[in-house]
Design brief:
single chain, 203 residues, alpha/beta, Rossmann fold, five-stranded parallel β-sheet, 54% helix
């Protein structure tokens, strides 16, 4: 069986949590495609040109300890607008999506660009304020000292960059199911996603 689940959405909307839960429930492989861009961004912060960083990306780069820091998140958003970077990572993502046994990919352009023929497409979103609160809590729990307003500004800036970029802008696929998690519990969101995959499997 080869079934692809594409889960897109802005930062801190819950798409990663939902993707991991869906993959675990069905025994599918999971790829957080944002880590690819974070790894490229992290390498550019060390002085490597973005295109070279993408073309020479190694699996070990995806296990770095600093990939969830605010600086790397901003760098990832900046390299993600570069067409050459996106092209360098395209084949890897598409090959992963069609692996035997099923795959779940979460990112920002999975259903629109990477896997337009995915059997299941979900777009997970939430208000910027709620997403900023989630990210603020996540960062402070890790011991990072950040201001909530700073986190909100970063979320809004990333949204604007992701939605306005010329190449693969952030938007729901025409046939995606939208899950708004602003006031939805994570359990309810996961259940809705699992139900959608169940429907596709029965079909």
């Amino acid at each position: 069986m080869s079934l692809t689940v594409a889960i897109d959405g802005p930062a801190a909307a819950g798409k990663g949590t939902i993707a991991r839960a869906v993959a675990e429930h069905f025994g599918f492989a999971h790829l957080d495609t944002g880590l690819l861009y974070r790894a490229v961004g992290a390498r550019t912060l060390e002085g490597l040109p973005a295109r070279e960083a993408a073309e020479t990306l190694d699996p070990a780069d995806l296990t770095r300890d600093d990939l969830r820091t605010p600086d790397v998140a901003q760098a990832a958003s900046k390299v993600a607008v570069i067409p050459e970077v996106r092209a360098a990572l395209l084949d890897f993502q598409r090959a992963f999506a069609r692996r035997a046994g099923g795959a779940v990919l979460d990112g920002r352009d999975i259903g629109t660009v990477i896997c337009p023929d995915a059997e299941v497409k979900l777009f997970v979103t939430a208000s910027a304020e709620v997403r900023a609160d989630r990210r603020f809590l996540e960062l402070t729990e890790k011991g990072m000292k950040v201001a909530r307003q700073e986190v909100l500004a970063d979320v809004v800036a990333r949204d604007q960059r992701d939605m306005e970029r010329a190449d693969a802008p952030l938007k729901p696929a025409d046939d995606a199911v939208v899950l708004d998690t602003t006031s939805l519990s994570i359990n309810a969101a996961v259940e809705a996603a699992i139900a959608r995959v169940d429907t596709a499997l029965r079909a």
